Amino acid sequence: MVLEVEATHAQIQRILQSKAFRTSEVHRSLLVYLAEKSLAGTADGLKEYTVGLDVFSKPASFDPRQESAVRMHVGRLRQKLAEYYRTEGAGEIAREIGGAEINRRGRSEPAGRDQRRDQRRVAEAGKPDTDQVSAERRDRGTQRRHPWP
User: Is residue 148 part of a domain?
Assistant: First the structure.
């Protein structure tokens, strides 16, 4: 676990020093905040309102339904991460950061999507193959009979 945390910190530092992030203090701050929350295990409970207060210094009266600044910056952060993994970080393994991950094609996906996809495959693997079932029925003579030839 300690090695994974250190590897994640090293990767965050590489991302922050990259061309995509070098000039954007807002996205650098957002990335660091989300990474810290993710490493602390509290990223699942993050809300747009909390990010607005903590990262963007929004007032307590901030209403995320009326102001989309947090959504806009998070979307732009995903684009910058995708750019990083397409260019300077092309050989690196993308890590989940703050509830989002960048897939191998450089596209942002909700975290755990691959795990859910793998779980579906495992569940589907337990289902009988319909071609195999049809062949077994035919071999047993239980195939449906039709009145026409």
Answer: no
- Per-residue pLDDT tens over the stretch 80-94: 999 998 999 888 777
Residue 67 has pLDDT above 90, yes or no: yes
Domain assignment present for residue 143? The answer is: no
Confirm if 130 and 64 have CB atoms less than 8 A apart.
Answer: no
**Domain-located, residue 136:** no
Side-chain-side CA neighbours of 83 within 13 Å: the count stands at 13
Q: Containing domain of residue 100, as a range?
A: 2-112
Domain count, the chain: 1
Residue with tokens 């061309």: 19
pTM above 0.90, yes or no: no
> How far is the C-alpha of 64 from the C-alpha of 135, rounded, in Å?
57
